[in-house]
Amino acid sequence: MHGLRTFAAAAGAAALALAAATAAGAANPQVQHFTFGPTVNADEDFCGTGQTVTETFSARLTVWNDPNQPVDTRNQSVSDDVFVSPAGVTVTTHSAYSFTDVLLSGDPNGTNTHQWTFKGAAQVTRIAGGGVIARDSGHFVVDTTWDGPEFNSDLISTVVVKDAGGHPDFNSDFCSLMVPALGLG
């Protein structure tokens, strides 16, 4: 699930930023700006290929502590996830979207369901010098069910509620896209 991996990483970073922002600005809700990364990770067995791929992730987020909307969390994010193969092939996933999160049901510390809404260029994946290989954009709504606190427990299920604009990458197999793109297969 390439898309879910990227969406969850950005949403998780936003959740961490929101927790920090809420603690910092609880008395006076305000807009908070955060920058993450770049963080660099070397995966020594990328997608089971036995080859090392370096991943560099960076993101910028704007978080509204107490959104003036019927949502629990709202942020605007821009991120880049850059993968480089041993041969120097570079594949970048760029994301830029508005995200909201609403607790639909359940106990936030037990089983619970959240509705995530994405609007914008959710992600565009490109090979350097080779063009776009995957693209998700538009209005996308997903219900996520967790077995404990959101992002701090196991994800039980995801259900696509609305897909206006096309998000084929969301439920795609990350490795089936990235291994050939990086020239590893």
Keywords for this entry:
seven-stranded antiparallel beta sheet; single chain
What does this molecule look like?
There is one protein chain. By secondary structure, this protein is an alpha+beta fold. The chain has one domain (2-181). Helix content is 17%, strand content 52%. The protein has helices at 2-25, 174-181; strands at residues 31-43, 53-64, 73-84, 90-106, 112-127, 131-146, 155-164. A hairpin with a 5-residue loop joins β3 and β4 (90-106). Residues 20-28 have low confidence and may be disordered.
Helix content: 10-25%
**Form type:** globular
Secondary-structure class: alpha+beta
Strand content: over 45%
The gyration radius over C-alpha positions equals 17 Å
Termini, distance in Å? 19 Å
In total, the number of strands is 7
- Count helical runs: 2
Report the average pLDDT across residues: 84
Task: Report low-confidence residues grouped into runs of 5 or more.
Answer: 20-28
**Sheet with most strands: strand arrangement:** 1-2-3-4-5-6-7
Largest sheet: 7 strands, antiparallel
Structurally, how many domains make up the residues?
Answer: 1
Helix and strand element order:
HEEEEEEEH
Question: What layout of secondary structure does this protein have?
Answer:
Layout: H1 2-25, E1 31-43, E2 53-64, E3 73-84, E4 90-106, E5 112-127, E6 131-146, E7 155-164, H2 174-181
Antiparallel strand pairs: 1-2, 2-3, 3-4, 4-5, 5-6, 6-7
